[in-house]
Automatic annotation (TrEMBL), chain A:
GO terms for cellular component: membrane protein complex. The lineage of its organism: Bacteria, Pseudomonadati, Bacteroidota, Sphingobacteriia, Sphingobacteriales. It comes from Pedobacter insulae. GO terms for molecular function: ATP binding; ATP hydrolysis activity; transmembrane transporter activity. This is ABC-type lipoprotein export system, ATPase component. PANTHER family: CELL DIVISION ATP-BINDING PROTEIN FTSE, LIPOPROTEIN-RELEASING SYSTEM ATP-BINDING PROTEIN LOLD. Signal peptide: none annotated.
From TrEMBL, chain B:
One of its GO terms (cellular component) is plasma membrane. It is found in: Cell membrane. It holds the Pfam family MacB_PCD. Its main location: membrane. PANTHER family: ABC-TYPE MACROLIDE FAMILY EXPORT SYSTEM PERMEASE COMPONENT 2 (PTHR30572:SF18), MEMBRANE COMPONENT OF TRANSPORTER-RELATED (PTHR30572). It is a multi-pass membrane protein. Signal peptide: none annotated. Residues 20-231 form the MacB-like periplasmic core domain. InterPro entries: ABC3_permease_C (IPR003838), MacB_PCD (IPR025857), Macrolide_Exporter_MacB (IPR050250). Residues 276-391, 678-791 form the ABC3 transporter permease C-terminal domain. This is Putative ABC transport system permease protein. Keywords: Cell membrane, Membrane, Transmembrane, Transmembrane helix. The chain crosses the membrane at residues 21-43, 270-298, 325-347, 367-392, 413-433, 675-699, 719-741, 761-784.
Amino acid sequence: MIELKNIEKYYANKGVKSYILRHVTTSIKQGEFVSIMGPSGAGKSTLLNILGMLEEATYGEYHFMGEDVTAMNERKRIELYRNHIGFVFQAYHLIDEMTVAENIEAPLLYKKIPGAERKSRIADVLDRFNMVAKKDLFPNQLSGGQQQLVGIARALVAQPSIILADEPTGNLQSAQSEQIMDLFRKLNQEENITILQVTHSEKNAQFGNRILTIEDGVIKEDVSVSK
Amino acid sequence: MFKLNLKIALRNIWNHKLTTLIKLIGLIVGLSTVVLLVAYVMFELSFDQHNVNVNEIYRLHSINSKDQKEEINLPSGLAEMLRDEVPEVNKTTMLHSHEVQVKVGENFFKEHLATTENTFFDIFTVPLVIGDSKNLLKEANTLIISEGFAKTAFPKGNAVGQLITLANYPNAYQVVGVMKDLPKASHFRADLITRTGLSKKLNWSGYSSIPQYIQLKKGVSPLVVEQRLKALYGKYKFPKTVKINLMPLSKIHLYSHTGSEMEANSDIKYIYIFSVVAFFILLIAIVNFINLTIAASIKRGKEIGVKKVMGASPRQLRVQFLSESYLYFILAALLALILTHDLIPYLGGKLGVEVSLSGMVNLKTALISLGIIVFAGFVAGLYPAIILSRLMPVKTLKGYTGHTSGKFGFKNILMIFQFCISAFLIICTLAIYTQLNFIRDKNLGFDKEQILVSSFTMFGENYANFKEELQRKADIKSLSLSSFNIGKSFGGSSSWTNDNDTTEYKSDHVYADLNFINTLNIQVVKGRAFSDKFGADMVDYDNVMGTVSSYEAYQKIIAQKPILLNEAAVKALNLTHPVDTVLNFGGLQGKVIGVVADFNGMSLHHKVNPLAINLSLNGMAGYLFVKTNSVNLSSTKAMIEELWKKYFPTIPSELTFLDTHLEQLYQSEMRLGSLFITFAGIAIFLCCIGLFGMVFFEVQQRTKEIAVRKVLGASIRDLLGLLNSSFIKLVILANLLIWPASYYLIREWLNGFYYRADLSYIPFVGALGISLVLTLVTVSLQAIKTIRKSPVKALKYE
């Protein structure tokens, strides 16, 4: 699903290149649950951003579902956002002016899904996440864990093939954190959704089936999680 | 999607009340100004458009090739001559209208009387309510009156057949018809219409003050007529310097500035000035909108980023932000309409315009307003939409800290632009008021306080007795009857050519009684004033013709007629020893007994011209000047009116105070002044609330910086200085930038006055001072709240 070949990212400052990522080469298959780990400043988030096409690599090849991302135009990228990629953020990033239901509905609007189907999908997701009663509340009326549930629901409702999550539980307490991780595992196992998460927590990483460790911009370790 | 975006926009409007309020107020004020302007311009452009034949009707003007002066006083019969000679001329009429005192039963009214011909009703569109337009005004001494006047004068509704007397007209007039009221937007007014009995033969010695109109056949260009006129100049012995010009009816109100307009015309210049100023004010409002929208985007960066990663295209985001702008504009436009609905009549009064919003509603104004809203909404929404839709999600999601575009961003340019406009308006306002003060304080060379002046009155035989009794009253210092209509006309003028060197001389003439000089307290610099102690001053020169047997005898007496010259006349005539010089030039004949200092009898727009004051001992008509000793002017006025009634029961009295009378000469300047002060006020207000909003965001963005500085020991004053300095720099720069342009424009305007205040640095420095103070106050008011907050919170938040 994802092929990275020799990805480099650096900032040139007065002739000195400061590298964020170096020689990153890896591939991720459909249905994997990968955790990216490493110390602060190692380049985890940058890697995730590049994978999510939020940032461009300075050098290297990146194929997403067989297509060359570096040669991709904006329209095509928007197309991928709409149909294949779901984002989950550490700070949830719900739109404050929208209710829970509206936040979940937003990606469907951009996907131009007809009204009736939108309604049924939202109802479905709300039901699954046990949030039917909260659908008309605004984000600031929810707890952090609940907000993150909405964030995941929003990412899921468009039926993506991959979810990119940047420290999804970084702002949450451990109980809530476990609940979210359970959810991710379930989605991965039952719906075969590829999940890529950046995390600091060894415990969270254990929910997945593969761990990539990055240090100083280089992949140091790539191990499978033994169950 | 539209519904959701609308919801988000409304929730945004609701959640950020301060910004919303600032944006909305700005737009409401800006759009209201534009609506008012559109109302005003539409009114000014609608003059005489109610006439069905408006495009075929022309007024005849003469242009003197020597001084390019345009006049409507033409030889009578000119229009008829054109009708007979030029096949393209369809119909002709004469028309003159002026205010008269009308007496109905025991009541006096002041109304406009139009003197015209029967063809008037064929050319101009004046629907009749009662009467048959074919036979109207066939008889002499008949009148057609307006519906409005009929209602006030004959409340019982039986106007037709009634008799009406007009002051200064000998006969009674009978009402034979009632017409609809003329619209306000007409270059002449008429409450009563009667016919004139002037001869119709072209006569170059008989100039008529009655303007002449022609109606061309449909589709004929006036150029055709002007072409044909060339052949007629010779045939009818036109003076070589005179050419006839056709003034289109629709242009009279804005383009005709002859000395004898029936109503005070406006000027296309004003339309341009107000359009430009209103446009500027709208721009200020738009700039506020743009700047505040972009500043507020700090808070919306997240929304934009999230939407982008959910698959929103930049176009969709642009559409969203544009629609939000339009939402504001539509809201503001609706509120502006409500506001202007009540404001228009009020401001209309100020502008001398009578319009109502409902009277303006038609397809044209609706389209214009819609056009303005669409255009302004687009301009205001586009820039933020482009900027915001371009934001990279990776930045906005990590905590976007505002749009910065280099050190001297677009935001600053827009703010400088705003400050430029408001500085310009303040400078203009100050300059206009400097000149108005100059006018008010200028020593005109005669007294203007404690003097009452009457309108033109034909007193008749009883004047001597009236004068006798009035002079005996304790409050009355002196009185004088003369032909001097202050600010409008001295009474007469004459011109002649020197036979030796063909120099042209021109002199104005006042015809006045013995007391003229001391009543107005005009300074005599050489010789003496008129006095009953001199025999030569006690001769009734006006009636000397009938008492002498020969022309020589007449000449001999006239050579003794006492004349006062002003200094300008002495200079023009090049008299070294003016006193006792005997003058004999056409209209200027007599013996100079004294020289008076130049006084500004006309408006200060014009230079003091040569003037001769002629003695008219037993005049019985003219303008009465009464100088009083009394402090209580209104009781003196009442006393005079009482006496007036006793001696002239049929003549209504109309006394005004000379100083108020003089102020009316500068009505258009005062109107300009009050408009500029209004516009400047609006502009300043908009700039200030815009600034208020900008500081709000600036402070929010710099909360942490402020907190750190505070912890490091900065005082409140240091921090205020810090926050103020960037705005102060912009204000100073904007002021300096606008100085040259405003200097140039003000100088142009002041050049319209022969007597003018010096263009000093005061308006410029004053405007700078006002801008600086307002900026300081605005910025500090907004900033002080944040500065006073405990730094702990701001620092902990990070």
